[in-house]
């Protein structure tokens, strides 16, 4: 059964809120891809919508939006998620996860795209 952490960023004030999810709540994320919008009611943020922006698996390998599926892939990178070159023209073969959230995910990154009527802090305090 899937169990992971969802980090939700609030672009308006720059804060990030972390939620541990498992069971049915975690299953709402499994099978979704980077860029997909999801109702955040399952996280206790009723009226909010979040967008998946990335994540990592149990070994810390990042998800990349340009790699299909949820399996591991060894790709040659010139920069971006998973590799930061130190000199011009540097390339490196790196193992990354695909853009689809799977049961191997450990952390899912998301951002708020649509706000509810109550502030996030109030909704978190109610739990």
From TrEMBL:
InterPro entries the record matches: Ribosomal_eS6, Ribosomal_eS6_arc, Ribosomal_eS6_CS
Family: Belongs to the eukaryotic ribosomal protein eS6 family.
GO cellular component, one term: ribosome
GO biological process: translation
NCBIfam families named among the record's database cross-references: PRK04290.1-3 (NF003294)
PANTHER family: 40S RIBOSOMAL PROTEIN S6
Record has Iron as a keyword: no
GO molecular function: structural constituent of ribosome
Assigned keywords, A-Z: Ribonucleoprotein, Ribosomal protein
Designated name of the protein: Small ribosomal subunit protein eS6
UniProt organism field: Halocatena salina
């Amino acid at each position: 059964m899937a169990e992971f952490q969802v980090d939700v960023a609030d672009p308006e004030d720059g804060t990030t809120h972390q939620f541990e999810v498992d069971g049915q709540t975690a299953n709402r994320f499994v099978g979704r891809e980077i860029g997909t919008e999801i109702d955040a009611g399952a996280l206790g943020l009723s009226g909010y919508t979040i967008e998946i922006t990335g994540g990592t698996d149990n070994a810390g390998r990042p998800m990349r939006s340009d790699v299909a599926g949820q399996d591991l892939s060894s790709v040659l990178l010139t920069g971006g998620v998973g590799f930061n070159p130190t000199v011009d023209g540097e390339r490196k073969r790196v193992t990354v996860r695909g853009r689809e959230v799977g049961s191997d995910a450990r952390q899912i990154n998301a951002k708020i795209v649509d706000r509810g009527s109550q502030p996030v802090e109030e909704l978190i305090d109610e739990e």
